[in-house]
Amino acid sequence: MFVYLSKKIAIPNGIPLKCIAWDKENGYLACGGDDGLLKIVRLDSNQNSVNSSGQAQSNLSANQTLEGHNGSVSIAVWNETSQKLTTSDQNGLIIVWVFFKGTWHEEMINNRNKSVVTGMTWNGDGQKICIVYEDGAVIVGSVDGNRLWGRDLKNVQLSHVDWSPDSKMILFGLMNGEVHIYDSGGTFIMKLNLEAPCSLIALKWFKYSIYPENPSLAILFSNGKLQLMKSDQDENPIIVETQLKPVDCQWNHDGTILAIAGHSSDTNPSPTQNTMNFYSPLGKLIRTMKLPGHQITGLSWEGFSLRLAFSIDSFIYLAQVKHDYMWTCFSNTLVYHFHKRNKPESYVMFWDTKNNERYVKQVRQFIGTASCGDHCVLATRLDDEEIQISTQCDFGLILCNALGTPVDSKYVSLEPRLVAMTSSHVVTASGNSFMLWHYRTPRSQTTIDIAGIKRENKEKIYSIETFLSGEHSLSCVTARDNVLIFGTDSRNLLGFNLSSSAVQYVGDIQLSFEPTKMSLNSNCTKLAILDHNGVLHILQLEVDGASFTLGSILSFERRDVWDLCWAMDNPELFALMEKTRMYIFRNLEPEEPVVCSAYLCHFKDLEIFAVSLGDVLKDPENPSKEDLVAMETKSLRDTRHLLEKVGTNEAYQFVEENSHPRLWRLLAESALQQYDLQAAESAFVRCADFASLQLLHRLKNLPVGSGIIKAEVAAYFHKFDEAESIYLENDRRDLAMALRRKLGDWARVSELQNAATTTDLENKSTYNQMGNFFCDRHQYAQASRYYKLAENNEKLVDCYYNMEDYENLEKLIDMLDERDPLVPKIASMFTSVGLCEQAVQCYLKCNQMKAALDTCVTLHQWNMAVELSRQIQAPEIASRLVSHADRLLEYGKISDAVELFRKANCHREAANLLFQVGEQAIKKWNDPLKIKKLFVLAALLTEEAKNVTTQNSLTMERVSKFLDAPWRPAEAWHYFILAQQQFQQGKLVAVMATTIKLQDYTDILDEETVFSMLALASALNKCFNVCSKAFTCLESMPALNHADRENYSLLALEIFTKYPPKDGRSSKIECPHCSTDIQDWSNSCPECNNRFASCVATGRPLMDTSLIWSCRVYLTILGKVKTGTRTDFKHLVVKVAPFLYFRVIWTTTQDLPSSIIFGAMMVKIPSGDIVEVTDSALTP
After folding, report:
1. Which residue, among 777, 791, 780, has the nearest Cα to 744 in the 3D structure?
2. Which pick of 5, 267, 678, 828 has the fewest CB atoms within 10 Å?
3. Which pTM was predicted?
4. What is the DSSP string of 1000-1021?
5. Distance between CA atoms of 415 and 385, rounded to whole angstroms?
């Protein structure tokens, strides 16, 4: 940071000033003084604050004296939100001023006439003002002049007031040095804990802090002590001894600098001197500035902290502030750090100043940056706890290119407070330690990979205590090539050599000043050093090959220097900034200064590139090229002047005396424009421009005065239209076309060809190039048109593919020969987008059967794959199909495996797979409904296989036993579930019939479970004969263990001891075949051995086959019950899909439905109407 006085404004009649305040939003500066003086001035800048030389231009655009006060105006505060000024004088008169039609006018007046106003302040949003009086009175008002509340604090004298950042608390400073905290409604909260209480000078709480970890509350005491606190609850405040008799203090616009104005007394008996101290939020002294005059009374910051205003005696002094921004410049890219208001995140802008392209990178906690060559490094603090724990590091280094893209990164444990960068290393330092990181760029990484060099993962940390005795702290660093130099706060310089793999200590020297900034010239022979007071020194370095030694300080000194930049191509040339002037030095001799206040970026080819960073950071997300400054050295300006006014021969002597490649190139171009080939050649030799020398060699072989020479020279200076016109005038259309070809202007080449007779080969070449032009810009539609004219099928295919124009791509196949290599390429394109049929056609056309088959497999078109395998006799497709199905089953994707077989038209194999899955599920016995669904789906696939005409078949390793009778397992589990439901619903008669039906499926269901259910159902129905038979079956089961068999025997003994083995129920019906009376739950007749069908809805046997409805997909049996004089189907089910039902109720004697219930919805049919059931799945 560097501060210097830049302007002095005198107050008329020499009236002493008492206060000063700067409107940060609108730029108005208000000052108050004795005899009721109140003056408002405005220091306007031009639109971008810099002129062509980078100098800030300020003019006094507004100057108004306000009348209304009679006493000395001691307080002036701005409300930037509402653009209002509130002032108070020694008589207690308060006036609110408002800006209206270009001038300031009184809006409100308040005079309490009891006491003097000692403090006024607006809250953060500008909606409330708090006014305190010396006698303890407090008034809080709104921005529109309404009084919100007032209070008289007893037995206290108030001196200062300020709002908390959130406007929820008000801090009152008392005359005795205490600070009391009240809420926004005037209720006392607490007394602030002060470390060194005495009378207060200032109480400032910054409102918009973006660093919550930094103190923002500053309390300044009359004894020169400063207390910094993070909040009102801070138990560890920072105490700073300012060594001043303070007058006022103010935070800058972002709370990173606290300026304190006061008086300092020298040891000699001279009058007190006005002094300004600048502190960081942590209390570190940044800079001290001496001010003229006798009595300083106030200070105020400008909106973006680029200037400071002081009220001293009867003058306003303005100081220019040059901040130490975190920025760097490389490869036409400006990199700078910025914050968004009220957001804690840091942002880094990568601004391509040449193309005006911007890339923003968000960084959580930014520390610093440096650059070299084509890359820069960003130093950050890590905020990811997992990374901190795993790496044992709290900081990170990110190597980025010009677009802000990370190229390499490194986690480090040493805080990178100082950062420097060379072409191979990043140097970071903090305290008394430093570290080198050997970074890798894509180019260097390729070289290292080829050489086989192993990269070290852990970097070594060096301590300067190893090389320098005593306690020292590093204050600055610079590095270039193999030279590394550190400066310390103890006025030492330490040199290190980086030419070998290990850091070599070169030596150290003692200085008479403390270095704060250093810079090496291009060949590392001179070191520029800036001290704390802005004095520039030059140190000579003795360089011997790859080694160097620190020399001595040269007898060269410049004061008030705040920036310096060495030329990249001349070690004796550098530019420096002294206040508002830029000086260029050649061999330590200055040229004429240039008015400028911009930051220096780089110095090359006698041209200095600078940027007004203060103005850029006013709107950091939208930097303007008008903030960039390009300036030429005096020698370059003089050479241009000589060439324009005198001529080439006279300018030659000047360039000889001030030799530089840029000057020789300028001279050569001037001679070439005058067609002085001899002088141009001599100058091009001096600047080593071999390409231009080849041009001159060609021109010398042409006739003198030839138009071709003029055309070539015009082309050299990029006057291409003029050159083409000259070629055409000299009847050299071929050279005009060659020029346009070099420029890539193929549209113009086509025009020139059309105007002349050309061959088809030349036309096709031009069309190809035009197609390439549009293709490079991803304009594939236009590119395809030219490729078609050029008959370039290879490029045309790529265009169609990029446009996703598969229709034209398919048409193109018919035009290609079967041996054309584009055919398999197109096939692979179709494969990549999933167009299997088109890809197979391409492969078949070029006779690549194996590739066609692989494509079908890759895209899971198994039906096509199986058919293709038959054609080419590739039996391995079956094994691949099965292998793929096994993989799907391994991951539990049963449905995918079944669908795989279905797509391959292997329905029987799909059914077999489902049957096997169902068999495995039976063993687990965990979800009967899921088992039933599996078997239903398997049976449907079996039925589907019967209707498929082109059924593919595979050799199955294991064939399920259910394939021959596919519906039996589904029926078994259906009746099993039905029986369980009937048990739960208490339908004992129905469950008896269903469990008897289950005896037909003991080969599928667990035999013990079936007979246990039958024994239970028959016992509940008092059919103990059936129950006895069930127990007999249970006891005779060979797989039953002895303990279970014994338990069944004991249970049977207990039952049949009480009840004889006879059926107690007497409900019988006639067998429809032999008229024998049988039980109504019997599913077969014991006389004629006829078996009866069972109803899938109730499980009961159906005797009369004339009243049965069945499904065409699966024979579903539905029965009826006669009740009285009409026939009803009660709770019967019509099956539309396997085991999915609709309830049907019959109520008429004609057996026609009167209503049908579909799920929860009933459709009623009027009685007597004849309704035809039209569902194709039902057959009456």
Report:
1. 777
2. 267
3. 0.69
4. GGTTTS-HHHHHHHHHHHHHHT
5. 16
